[in-house]
């Protein structure tokens, strides 16, 4: 018999089983022993030869070995069916049908296993290609950096030199841009490809690894900022990025809900988002540095940037941006209503044109007062009107002052409302943040289940522990973000001084 690819343990198991079948036949049909032995020897020899022949030609030898073992066990099944047939023909038919169905299912699974094997090999090849691309991208980036340094030296040398040298410098700058775009394109294309394959398996969120990556990147950014110049983002570029990450984060959170995975904080997700978009560590750090720099620059003057800054610092919950959307929407609707009341016979098309003129230009005092009076209670309305009037007078032209008119840019009007909203909400959450940071001592914006229970104990509502944990972490992920804590506790009502209020409002009232 040829040396077999089948293991000795497999052959021994099959042989022992066949010997037991032979013993059964011998009791009833002694003459069958020799025939059975010859049949076993012939079948094993044939299957072993076929398997050895496929050794160097088959793409999946493991599958071939499995099929060989299946055939040998099927032979045992056929012989036991033959024995049972001498005792009970009906039972023999039933057993034979069972064995045939098992063989059929095995063949179907064999096809699936081969497909899975092919996919695994494809994924390995893709990962190998990605490694090669990233190495090439790093090389291209180093080349681009060298060219930038040469460009800087040329600038120093050609101050006041002929125009042909200036043209050479321009050419070098264009080459730098081409290299950089190629780096981004290559790294993004392969990183996106592999990330999509790996996330399709269900490992969508990896909170611990992400938090460690954030800490590492923060240290690296701090070191880089001390010695390197960071690209300057315009306010428009920064706000476009903020909108992109808001939209992407909403889709990610929905995916987490569907797959019962833990959510990430906005800070965590910003790193994940940039990693998926650019792939290269150096590019990610450059972008993070640029974003941090731009946020620090523009948050004093733009409420959207201010809100984003407070979200990534775990000071305001992510859902609060929906309040901003509602303020913008309501302001526009109230302005339209005011114009319709002021001009009741104006056609709808003319009202829309006037509305566009107002939103792209100036509001008159009666218009902004009408909107504010409707949107806010008396105390807030009076405070906002004084704030808006002060801003309008400070930015009013001399001609308008002579006419006794006070106008205010619509964009300034909306921004002042948004700034009022975010400042007020920040003050409301301040007492709660103090309690939260007693538990979240590293200010990562994340609590595990045990820490959330500790927070409820600090808030003196530990009796609500079981109910609130089910609400804030319905899939038992063991990870609870600052935003989820705030959203949950704002909706949790309790009696306070004869009224039902949230625990967060209660904390604010006790402090003020």
From TrEMBL:
Coiled coil: 102-189
InterPro entries: EF-hand-dom_pair (IPR011992)
Keyword S-adenosyl-L-methionine among record annotations: no
SUPFAM superfamilies linked to this entry: EF-hand
GO cellular component: cytoplasm
Keyword list, A-Z: Coiled coil
PANTHER family, per the entry: CHROMOSOME UNDETERMINED SCAFFOLD_7, WHOLE GENOME SHOTGUN SEQUENCE, TRANSLIN-ASSOCIATED FACTOR X-INTERACTING PROTEIN 1
The protein's name in its UniProt record: EF-hand domain-containing protein
Species, as recorded: Stentor coeruleus
